[in-house]
Design a protein that fits this description.
The protein is of the alpha/beta class. 37% of the residues lie in helices and 15% in strands.
């Protein structure tokens, strides 16, 4: 008998995590200190990118990406309806227009063939970019998207919030880790508690483009720079005096664009560094849990589809499509198993309906939503707890 509640996701905070946070709290810096750069360098190395920029959350990461890519009023950007709303909202923050395209019913990812149809139906220049999502932890084939994007002059933001440690295999059979920015202009991650790496809140942007990297650093902190080589005001002005000087004073800084306060704190970064050291261990455990679900539900008549065991899958979520989803959802809750729904299709949210989106526009996404259920998936889920979940699901359908 399992007494405690089983959530769909859960953070794992160790004694080491607690100790590094305490050390950060006792240091000279709570924010804008050395732990930020340390976390950025470690994370860039982990995913294989050149640059990384730590920010306050995944939504901030998406917003800064859209700003850095100069999304403006009227710009059309393509994304998936099966994602957290932030993947689309970042375009709206900049005044752009979100164009949803349907998913592949087998992978649950943005269907590149449907994106091609969208692009081919309009003159080149109609669309500005694509935001594919590594949904549930399954890596998008970004190499294919890069080829398509290059044909139409589009940028790519990879929403990899579900997939740190995930990977795809390119045309040359080489492993491409999610977020390495080989094929995407920018990639983003989230450090929300249920994600692979938990900082409470927090996010990261990765890129190989130095120009974008510098723009992100400025936009993250109010559009302010303290880099003397970027200053445009004169040294005399900076000194506040007509007396000639050969150097800018130490206090001087310039706000050169309209930015935001999207900074991460040092104690969050310290927690992130500690969590990152266990990231591969967590991925291994997630894949073991997925394999157990796969075996348990294979061939079961009540399961219409499931995430499956896929090479490179990071398994932030393990999704099944089932008959009588509402009945099962409620039955599991009665037994303290808190499965979740990922996601209500974005195009049917009241906010996006005002732009003309309606039921029937994304048939694959809508069919998926009617049956999808995310089962408990996190590294500290025990075998006994997982067996309890499986037994309760089978028990429900036997009734």
């Amino acid at each position: 008998m399992i007494d405690k509640a089983i959530a769909y996701g859960r953070q794992n905070i160790t004694e080491e995590d607690i100790n590094v946070v305490i050390a950060a709290l006792q240091s000279d810096y709570l924010t804008q200190g050395p732990k930020i750069l340390e976390f950025e360098k470690a994370f860039a190395e982990y995913v294989g990118s050149t640059f990384a920029v730590a920010v306050s959350n995944g939504t901030a990461a998406l917003h800064l990406c859209a700003l850095a890519l100069d999304v403006k009023k009227g710009d059309k950007v393509i994304t998936t309806p099966i994602t957290f709303a932030a993947s689309a909202n970042c375009v709206r923050y900049c005044g752009g227009e979100v164009v949803f395209s349907d998913i592949d019913p087998e992978t649950y990812l943005l269907d590149i063939e449907k994106v091609k149809v969208l692009l081919e139906a309009s003159p080149k220049g109609t669309y500005k970019g694509i935001i594919p999502v590594d949904f549930a932890g399954r890596a998008v084939d970004l190499e294919a998207y890069r080829k398509l994007a290059d044909q139409y002059g589009l940028w790519i933001i990879e929403d990899a919030c579900h997939a740190p440690g995930g990977f795809s295999t390119d045309f040359n059979a080489e492993v491409q880790k999610c977020g390495n920015s080989k094929f995407a202009d920018l990639a983003i991650f989230s450090f929300h508690p249920v994600k692979h790496i938990a900082c409470g809140e927090g996010g990261m942007i990765t890129t190989n483009d130095e120009i974008l990297y510098k723009k992100l650093l400025s936009l993250r902190t109010h559009g302010i720079t303290k880099n003397e080589s970027d200053y445009t005001n004169s040294i005399d002005f900076a000194n506040g005096t007509a007396i000639e000087s050969s150097a800018y004073p130490a206090w001087y800084m310039e706000m050169q664009t309209l930015g935001f306060n999207y900074r991460l704190t040092d104690f969050q970064a310290a927690l992130g560094i500690s969590q990152l050291q266990r990231a591969d261990e967590g991925i291994i455990k997630r894949r073991e849990i997925a394999a157990t679900y796969e075996i348990a539900f294979k061939g079961k008549s009540f399961v219409k589809g499931q995430s499956g065991v896929v090479a490179g899958h990071a398994y932030h979520l393990y999704v099944v499509e089932v008959e009588d989803r509402l009945g099962l959802y409620n039955y599991l809750r009665e037994n303290k198993i808190f499965a979740q729904i990922h996601y209500i299709p974005c195009h049917l949210m009241p906010y996006y309906r005002q732009f003309g989106w309606k039921e029937g526009d994304m048939p694959n996404a809508e069919a998926y939503y009617k049956n999808c259920l995310s089962l408990p998936m996190y590294p500290t889920l025990t075998f006994e707890e997982q067996k309890f979940v499986i037994d309760k699901i089978e028990e429900y359908y036997k009734k």
